[in-house]
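Figure 6 in text form: structure in, sequence out.
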């Protein structure tokens, strides 16, 4: 008996000591922090903890989101087998049945309505391999021109501004390590402390080293607290504010004449344009006093080194592209580009916001940042793919415009990968109506999101713990995300699903991949000679070197830490400055008698995008379990809104109900609502459909609303 008991306890102890370690990267923001999930088997139950792992970008740090990411990946609500909607209910079917359903429906849709009746909607949260494959899938397997992705709603303004100004778009022109030694930093419309928390120490170190930090934001945030000067700009007035800063720089003789002469085009037109602008008018437009604009422009112009960072506050506007260009004008006028501790950073939000925009998911692009309307580029990619260039579809339309085409009946079928457009798009009522009209709608995802509820068929995807592949982080550093946990149930890797569908559609020969690495090796060839050249990067190198900054055109190339040291990427080597109007070409909604307040939107630290993943994490959901409206107490009293009370927020497009949160940190003419919640708290029901004419970015960050206490609204 004793012997038996001893044996039993020994075996339980051994079980308790079982530990598995999974190397991976956080699935959330663009820092792509490296980490390890430690799985401990304690007697008969499992326990998990996540720790940071050293790497050149996050330096081993993790934020609360990364530490709890496994809670959604291991959640019992994960979809683990294909689901078909039958009489309004999802029922389990086999993969064979699911693929046959797709074949039948996609084939009949294209036979009846044409190839372009099928659309593909992608994501900036998938790997480079999957983004590349999705672009190829749309153009080769479906032969449709309609493909775009949710990154359009996030990074397109910064990307188009950098491409037009520098000839090339990589989020950060310098490696992140340079931030700590910069003398003056402008943080425009970015709340890094909440959105990319592990980046903050770079700025804190810069401050310790004596940097002067200027923050531009309508709200006081954890990020603006760090600043020496906070310009509390009116929502949507960033382009005008940049004009004010430029005017000061030029008037005070702070232009780097030699740099401008040798490396820049368009300076004289910009100088003439800002000379004609009136500083008092700029102060009126922006809500920032003239003295503060003079102080900021003077300090940035005089300091020897400087960097400017922009994010969604500047970019998610109907003049977002032009506004970013105006901040780039400041860098070029002061010669703060292509040198140590001088440069630009677009602080990307989504995990693979950078890589996902480089390899063909955008309506107008082919891999390696090639252009789908450029004949040479088409010929090169057609050759890599083994198809005829004339068979490649032409340019499609942006994400929201695809939804309009669904609504009008031009697009009748859709494949959507890992995205939630009925929550993330502007004018969300239209998007919801549109998706309900589709003849056949396939969603690939981890959970039944608000959008997946509308699908005819849902296919189970793999999470960051299971899906190996490369990601390109905010710096432009390509990293290898190791992922060795088996997929749960019958879930498959996203790339495998695409290959399986291609096969039943008779295009299997172009999609005969058996690993993510094989896809990457084709991507390397497809990107060779393009602006985003990955051809010198291999999985082996990524493991040994812990990430490589592109471009990296050959296996001996070390990667490119700082861009534009010798020349810019335009054919003549020069950067292009352009005069930017104080006012958007597409008129922005401004507060008036009926809708008297600005509405601006953004993120909170504990949630990611539309919250589909983070709301499955108990530790994160508990921090912010519902949406809210931040409002200045003086404004709240004017509209009879008590703190922590329910309030109706209404625009010309619709209304939502959220809880008020008094804060004297926001402008009195502005309210703020985060965008992580759906249904009656979906702030995107309130956002207009207007798009930036250059990059097709919606104007999420500035619209006009009225507010009323919900009790009153009910009693009326
Ligand atoms: Fe790192 Fe961003 Fe994940 Fe936080 S959310 S752990 S900063 S990647």
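Output sequence:
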């Amino acid at each position: 008996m004793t012997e038996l008991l001893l044996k039993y306890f020994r075996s339980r102890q051994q079980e308790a000591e079982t530990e598995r370690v999974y190397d991976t990267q956080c699935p959330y923001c663009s820092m792509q922090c490296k980490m390890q999930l430690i799985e401990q088997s304690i007697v008969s139950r499992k326990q998990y903890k996540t720790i940071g792992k050293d790497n050149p970008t996050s330096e081993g740090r993790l934020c609360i989101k990364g530490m709890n990411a496994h809670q959604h990946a291991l959640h019992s609500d994960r979809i683990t087998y294909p689901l078909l909607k039958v009489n309004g209910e999802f029922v389990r079917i086999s993969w064979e049945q699911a693929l046959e359903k797709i074949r039948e429906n996609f084939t009949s849709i294209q036979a009846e309505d044409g190839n372009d009746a099928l659309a593909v909607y992608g994501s900036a949260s998938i790997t480079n391999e999957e983004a590349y494959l999705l672009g190829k899938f749309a153009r080769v397997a479906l032969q449709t021109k309609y493909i775009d992705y949710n990154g359009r709603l996030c990074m397109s303004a910064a990307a188009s501004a950098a491409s037009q100004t520098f000839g090339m778009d990589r989020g950060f022109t310098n490696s992140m390590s340079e931030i700590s030694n910069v003398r003056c930093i402008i943080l425009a419309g970015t709340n890094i402390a909440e959105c990319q928390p592990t980046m903050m120490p770079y700025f804190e170190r810069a401050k310790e080293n004596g940097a002067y930090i200027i923050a531009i934001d309508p709200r006081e945030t954890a990020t603006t607290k760090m600043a020496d000067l906070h310009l509390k700009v009116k929502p949507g007035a960033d382009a005008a504010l940049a004009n004010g800063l430029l005017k000061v720089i030029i008037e005070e003789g702070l232009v780097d004449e030699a740099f401008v002469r040798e490396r820049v085009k368009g300076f004289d037109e910009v100088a003439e344009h800002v000379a004609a602008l009136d500083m008092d008018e700029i102060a009126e437009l922006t809500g920032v006093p003239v003295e503060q604009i003079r102080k900021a422009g003077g300090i940035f112009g005089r300091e020897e080194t400087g960097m400017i960072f922009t994010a969604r506050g500047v970019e998610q506007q109907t003049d977002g592209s032009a506004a970013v260009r105006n901040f780039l004008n400041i860098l070029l006028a002061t010669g703060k580009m292509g040198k140590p501790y001088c440069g630009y950073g677009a602080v990307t939000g989504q995990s693979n916001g950078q890589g996902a925009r480089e390899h063909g998911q955008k309506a107008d692009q082919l891999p390696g940042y090639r252009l789908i309307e450029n004949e040479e580029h088409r010929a090169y990619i057609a050759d890599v793919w083994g198809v005829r260039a004339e068979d490649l579809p032409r340019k499609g339309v942006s994400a929201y415009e695809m939804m309009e085409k669904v609504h009008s009946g031009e697009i009748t079928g859709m494949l959507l990968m890992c995205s939630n457009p009925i929550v993330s798009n502007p004018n969300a009522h239209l998007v919801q109506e549109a998706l309900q009209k589709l003849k056949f709608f396939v969603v690939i995802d981890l959970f039944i999101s608000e959008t997946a509820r509308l699908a005819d068929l849902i296919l189970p995807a793999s999470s960051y713990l299971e899906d190996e592949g490369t990601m390109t982080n905010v710096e432009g550093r390509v990293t290898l995300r190791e992922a060795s946990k088996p997929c749960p149930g019958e879930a498959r890797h996203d790339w495998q699903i695409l290959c399986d569908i291609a096969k039943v559609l008779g295009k299997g020969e172009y999609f005969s991949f058996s690993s993510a690495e094989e896809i990457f090796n084709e991507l390397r060839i497809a990107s060779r000679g393009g602006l985003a050249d990955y051809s010198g990067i291999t999985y082996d190198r990524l493991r040994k070197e812990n990430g490589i900054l592109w471009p990296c055109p050959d296996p001996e190339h070390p990667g490119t830490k700082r861009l534009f040291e010798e020349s810019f990427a335009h054919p003549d080597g020069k950067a292009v400055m352009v005069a930017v109007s104080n006012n958007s070409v597409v008129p922005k909604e401004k507060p008036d008698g009926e809708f008297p307040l600005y509405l601006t939107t953004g993120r909170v630290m504990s949630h990611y995008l539309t919250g589909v993943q983070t709301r499955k994490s108990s530790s994160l959901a508990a921090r912010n379990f519902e949406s809210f409206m931040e409002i200045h107490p003086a404004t709240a009293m004017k509209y009879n809104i008590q703190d922590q009370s329910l309030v109706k927020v209404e625009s010309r497009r619709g209304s939502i109900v959220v809880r008020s949160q008094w804060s004297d940190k926001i402008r009195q003419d502005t309210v703020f609502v985060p965008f992580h919640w759906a249904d009656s708290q979906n702030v995107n029901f309130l956002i207009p459909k207007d798009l930036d004419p250059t990059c097709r970015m919606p104007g999420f960050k500035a619209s006009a609303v009225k507010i009323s206490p919900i009790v009153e609204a009910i009693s009326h």
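Caption detail: The longest strand covers residues 34-42.
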